[in-house]
Amino acid sequence: MEPNQFSSLQNAIKVLADRGFTESIICDENGARFADDDALIEPSQIRIVDYHRVEADSDADDRCMVYALESESGRKGVLVNSPGMYSDTNINAFLKQLETPS
User: Bridge partners of 52?
Assistant: First the structure.
C-alpha cells in the first residue's frame, strides 16, 4: 500500500480524526501505549490501518509519517514519527512488530 500524502500534519490528523482515529499513541523504551492509559499495547493486539506521509513544501521540519492504528478492542489512535535519521528508535522498534496494510 502506498501512503497517502498530505501537505501538513494538521490536515492528516484532521482527516484521521474524522475517521475515528482520535486518540494519541506514544512510544518509549518500554513500548507503546495510548496517551491516557499506562497499559502497554501488545503488538499482537493492534494493527496499522493506514499511514500517511506529510511533506510540507515550506518546512523540512514538518515532514513526518502518521500511522492510524486500531486495537483489537476498537480503540483508534494516531502515532507520528519523523522520517529517516530523525526517526524515533522506540517508534521504529514498535512499528516493526506490526503488519503493514497491503
Answer: 4, 66
Task: Let me know: does 68 contact 47? Beta carbons within 8 Å.
Answer: no
pLDDT digits (tens, 9 = 90+) for 80-102: 999 888 899 999 999 999 977 76
pLDDT in tens, 22-50: 999 999 999 999 999 999 999 999 999 99
Q: Domain segments of the chain: what residues? A: 4-96
Sheet holding 76-81, edge to edge: 4-6, 46-54, 64-71, 76-81, 23-28, 31-34
